[in-house]
Design a protein that fits this description.
With 241 residues, the protein is mainly α. The chain has one domain. It is 54% helix and 2% strand. It is built from ten helices and two strands.
């Protein structure tokens, strides 16, 4: 049981950090810059961390930029206020993401600049071999360490970590909590739920200051991802824009 618990927690937070750091703060918002070497380094680590749920940086960036531009309006691709429930929101988000991924939807050019792209690696990272390989590894780990049937109920969290994290942020961060700013949308800061999301649930702050790498703005709002980002800056792995 201990091995399953450690794997679940470590995989959740490692995948979440790279989701937030690389896909969201760097890929979608370009809050900081990095060399091509480090971009590809984090490209690989984000793929490894998210595993079978690795999200395409281009599609993620475009969809997230549209979310900010049309926040909680009818053109917002994943507002909970345009859905009948969380599963309906997730389904709509997936279909929109898939259309972007397959380039069946042509977005406004203002949303299509400055995102990480590595076509040769992406051909492998989004192949069935990569996806099924990660799923097989997760199943093998559970087969070796699970000591009760109910532990297998956690397996889908590993397989779908990125979409699950995104769904919690989009649902909770636009429905529950308090507002520091009037952003003319329904974004909220969802404490104490942010313990699970490493700063991502300070949505009201983030929508007010989308280029700020620190999502916490008041004395009691701590963004756990920000000190790591500052450490990367200290060692000149990244440079703030």
């Amino acid at each position: 049981m201990l091995a399953i618990a450690i794997f679940l927690v470590v995989h959740w937070y490692v995948s979440l950090f790279f989701h937030s750091f690389f896909l969201h703060r760097y890929g979608a918002h370009h809050q900081f810059t990095m060399t091509k070497f480090w971009e590809r380094f984090f490209f690989i680590f984000t793929w490894f961390a998210q595993g079978s749920a690795f999200l395409n940086p281009r599609s993620y960036a475009i969809m997230h930029r549209m979310h900010h531009e049309y926040s909680d309006g009818m053109k917002d691709p994943h507002s909970p206020h345009n859905a009948r429930g969380i599963m309906h929101m997730m389904t709509k988000t997936y279909h929109f993401y898939y259309r972007l991924f397959k380039k069946h939807f042509i977005p406004n050019p203002i949303f299509t600049k400055h995102f990480p792209e590595w076509k040769s690696f992406e051909n492998f990272a989004f192949s069935r071999y990569s996806t099924l390989g990660f799923i097989a590894l997760y199943i093998a780990f559970y087969a070796f360490f699970a000591t009760a049937w109910w532990m297998w109920l956690f397996l889908p969290i590993h397989i779908f970590n990125g979409p699950i994290q995104g769904a919690i942020v989009n649902w909770s961060g636009h429905k529950y909590g308090y507002q520091n700013y009037n952003n003319h949308d329904k974004s909220r800061n969802s404490l104490p739920m942010d313990i699970l999301l490493m700063g991502e649930l300070f949505q009201n702050n983030h929508h007010k200051h989308p280029m700020s790498s620190n999502f916490g703005k008041r004395w009691f709002e701590f963004d756990p991802s920000y000190p790591v980002i500052r450490l990367f800056s200290f060692f000149r792995i990244i440079r703030f824009a």
